[in-house]
Amino acid sequence: MLAVCLEFLGMALCVTGSVLVMVACGLPMWKVTAFIDSNIVVAQTIWDGLWMSCVVQSTGQMQCKIHDSVLALAQDLQTARALTIISAVLGVVGLTVTVAGAQCTNCIKDEAVKARVVYAGGVIYIISGLSVLIPLCWMANNIIVDFHNPQLPPSKKREIGAAIYIGWAAAALLLFGGTLLCCSFASVVRGVSPIKYAPTKTITASSDLDKKYYV
Prior knowledge:
Blueprint (H helix, E strand, L loop, with lengths): L1 H25 L4 E3 L10 E5 L3 E6 L4 E5 L8 H27 L9 H37 L10 E3 L1 H22 L3 H4 L25
């Protein structure tokens, strides 16, 4: 029963994390305009994302432009693109593997094999969480370094956008959910450890029985 609860909770967290990874990947708010110094009062706000850049006017109008060239992007954006897509794909693969080995499904009959399959799904989710965590931390570090760079003009400085915070939440859910799925693999939790019985002695029917079998 505890294994089923761990699997259900871990799967719910991982699915939520995978959905948040996809949301963060599509949002353009990875880098946003920093309102500092003489840049406090502006007529527009700039959003920089993995796939497009958007300009939001003070009137509420928004214009977005897709990045024309992948090679022209910064190295952190290129890496973030690749790893977030890998993380999203691993999330789908992990869901398929975990469902195949879950206690509530009959795709696999052997309990020991099901436990290993669920463990494999948990490992895939952990790798998915690490894949999205690496570009998030890298990009956040670059934003902070550029923000405190005195040689960079205020109009070029950016702040951490909402997409990065969503990505951090997704990574935490994936890592924690994957850990729960791996914990359900323990034989003590699953209760699949075989019970060993002492060998029994058999008495053969014979006209001359050994005396040790008499009480």
